[in-house]
Amino acid sequence: MNQILSSRKIKYFHLIQPNQYYPTKRVFTSKEKEIAISKDSPYIEGVKKGYPVLLSKVADLQKAGVNVFSGVNILDNTKETVYKDACCHYNSVGEEVLANYVSSSIIKVVRESK
Q1: Can you say whether the dihedral through the CA atoms of 69, 70, 75, 77 is positive or negative?
Q2: End-to-end distance of the chain based on CA atoms, in angstroms?
Q3: How far apart are the C-alpha atoms of 42 and 93, rounded to whole Å?
């Protein structure tokens, strides 16, 4: 996608977002432990296998000029509940943290390219 968009002079941005099944330093609230963590989730295996592979490619992609960002830790310092289901979806608090991260990441790239 980056190559296609670059050839059209369109910036591409890729973000790896947090997921409750990929372990970070996040401390889940009691509500999240009830609604956001399911030992039977069909997503656990894919996240546990896929995230390490995705994250191992970030530095190489960045060196190749791809605007890729790892946001897996952006929820670690948030004390409030951020997940609203056992899949991967955020409530308004989580959406705001993610939106701030995405926008600041894009702004930084745009400013650096001027």
Answers
A1: negative
A2: 22
A3: 25
Length of the chain (residues): 114
pLDDT tens digit sequence for 5-39: 999 999 999 999 999 999 999 999 999 999 999 99
Q: Which of 109, 105, 87, 88 is nearest to 15 (CA)?
A: 105
Question: What is the per-residue pLDDT for 113?
Answer: 83
Look up the domain containing 101 and give its range: 2-112
Q: Tell me the H-state helices in the chain.
A: 2-7, 30-35, 44-63, 92-112
* Amino acid at site 78: T
3-state SS, residue 90: strand
Cα angle value 39/40/45 (rounded, 5°): 85
| pLDDT tens readout for residues 35-78 | 999 999 999 999 999 999 999 999 999 999 999 999 999 999 99
Instruction: Supply 95's token pair.
Output: 């959406």
44 Cβ partners below 8 Å, 6+ apart?
Answer: 21
What DSSP character marks residue 8?
Answer: T
